[in-house]
């Protein structure tokens, strides 16, 4: 799909310094997925696109094509999500979420749902007291949109398989889980991101470990740099 003269909603999911005053960005859009942007002069305090070229920012962008990159012609800020920088833990979980979106091969049919999910989770993480649970909820919903919704049935013996979700038999790609774990995961998957659920912190960390394994296995992603800080 070619970029036209209309403004496009986008979220900056990656930034890298380029030269003295510019950045290379990846911006996730609901129409085009991930696109590479050269933000010329965006590091200058006087730049008109300074606020639009920060990671986590959501904005309305007007792009123009170049030989190797698109360029930001103009735009308007929708949400800076600046509050993420006030809490290091929330910032790390938000960084992981951006890395998941950046490294995934996204289908055009799911872009709108994933965009709305990403926009909402970033806003919630700005003030959430339970970023671990919110990130697990994001992963479950994201994987569902990607076509890998895990089975969350409850059996007498329960194991979470990296291939499909909850199964009854153990294998080298599965992890033992409790019935209560499955009920908790169901709540995260099928209710709004706004809703909070109380659960054991140790079990949450264990389930987070399994879900990141599940995501990497099915989307064929080697690793996430952001996990080193979590």
From TrEMBL:
Limits of the DNA replication/recombination mediator RecO N-terminal domain: 9-80
InterPro entries recorded: ARFGAP/RecO (IPR037278), DNA_rep/recomb_RecO_N (IPR022572), NA-bd_OB-fold (IPR012340), RecO (IPR003717), RecO_C (IPR042242)
Keywords: DNA damage, DNA recombination, DNA repair
GO biological process annotation, one example: double-strand break repair
One Gene Ontology CC term in the entry: bacterial nucleoid
Pfam family, one: RecO_C
Reported function: Involved in DNA repair and RecF pathway recombination.
Family classification: Belongs to the RecO family.
Record HAMAP family: RecO (MF_00201)
NCBIfam families membership: reco
Name this polypeptide is given: DNA repair protein RecO
């Amino acid at each position: 799909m070619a970029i036209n003269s209309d403004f496009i909603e986008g979220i900056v999911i990656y930034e890298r310094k380029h030269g003295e005053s510019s950045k290379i960005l990846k911006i996730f859009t609901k129409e085009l997925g991930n696109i590479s942007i050269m933000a010329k002069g965006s590091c200058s305090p006087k730049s008109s696109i300074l606020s639009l070229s920060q990671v986590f920012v959501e904005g309305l962008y007007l792009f123009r094509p170049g030989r190797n990159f698109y360029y930001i012609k103009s735009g308007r800020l929708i949400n800076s999500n600046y509050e993420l920088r006030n809490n290091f833990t929330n910032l790390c979980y938000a960084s992981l979420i951006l890395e998941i979106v950046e490294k995934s091969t996204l289908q055009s049919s799911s872009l709108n749902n994933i965009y709305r999910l990403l926009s909402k989770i970033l806003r919630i993480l700005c003030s959430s007291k339970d970023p671990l649970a919110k990130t697990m909820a994001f992963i479950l919903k994201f994987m569902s949109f990607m076509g890998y919704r895990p089975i969350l049935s409850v059996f007498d013996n329960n194991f979470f398989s990296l291939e499909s979700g909850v199964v009854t038999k153990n294998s080298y790609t599965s992890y033992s889980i409790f019935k209560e774990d499955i009920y908790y995961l169901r709540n995260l998957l099928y209710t709004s991101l706004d809703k909070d659920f109380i659960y054991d912190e140790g079990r949450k960390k264990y389930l987070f470990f399994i879900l990141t394994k599940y995501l990497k296995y099915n989307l064929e992603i080697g690793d996430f740099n952001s996990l080193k800080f979590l």
